[in-house]
Predict the 3D structure of the following.
Amino acid sequence: MRHCGYIGFPLDPPDARLISRGGGDFAQFRDRYNKYHAGEDWRAPGEGSSFGKPVYSIGNGRVMYAEPEGWNRDKGVVIIEHIFADGHSFYSFYGHLDPPSVLLEPGDCVRRGETVGNIGQPRTPPHLHFEIRTHLPYQPGPGYWPEDPTLAGWLPPSQTIWNERMTAAPGVVWLRPFIPSGASPVGQPDETTLLLRDGEQVVAVGLADGRWQPLVLDGQPVNSALLAGDLLVAAGSQGKCARFAGRPPPLILCGRLIWASVGR
C-alpha cells in the first residue's frame, strides 16, 4: 500500500468547489439525539436528490471495514485506513451508502479519488455521513457522542483535510483558518486564538495553524456568547446564562480545552 500523500474531499474531489450543502457541522449538538455529531453531513452538488451520487476515497489507503448494511436502516458503511509518510495515520468513514454500491472488501487497497460507493437512502434525506477518526477501524460506531467527540477519537473532517494539505505543501504559510459558513465571531482571548459561535456551540480556532476545537461548556447548547476579558458569557436557548473563566491552550493541540464555571 502506498503512503497517503495529498488528500481530497469525498464529494466533488479533490477540492469540493461545487459543494454548497455540507460540512461544518462536526461536533454540533443535536437536540433530537441529545448528543454531539461525530462527523459531517455532505450532499452532492447541484439541485435535486443526492441519492445515487458517487462517493470517493479521500486518499490512498486500505479498506478496514465494508458492509452494505453496516448501519442497517441507515445503510452501508466503508472505513479506510490512511498511513502518512511520517508514520501517523487515521481512518476515513463513509456512511449512508447505497447497499448495492458497496463493492469493496476488507483488505482492498484504494487510491485517492476511487469510488467507494454511492449515496444511499437512510431514514433521513439522502446524504453522506463522513468522519475522520483515530479509533474504531472495524465497526461503524454511533455517529453521535454524548460529549465533545474530539475527546473520544474523532477529528474535525474538513479541518483535518486542510491541515494535512498544509503539512504536505512545503513553503506554505497559513493565512486564514478554515471557518464554517454561518459561524459568528465571539472574541479573541489572546493573539493566537479566535472564539466563534457555530450553531449551538462555541469553538476555538488556532490562528497559527487553523486548528478547530469545540469548547466543552457544561455540555449545554449555546444560543449566544460574548467574551468579556477573561470571562466567556454563554446563554442557552432558554436564556440561562453561565460564565466561564480560563483560556484555551495557545495552539489548540492538547485535544481538550478546560473552562472552569464560575457562576450563573
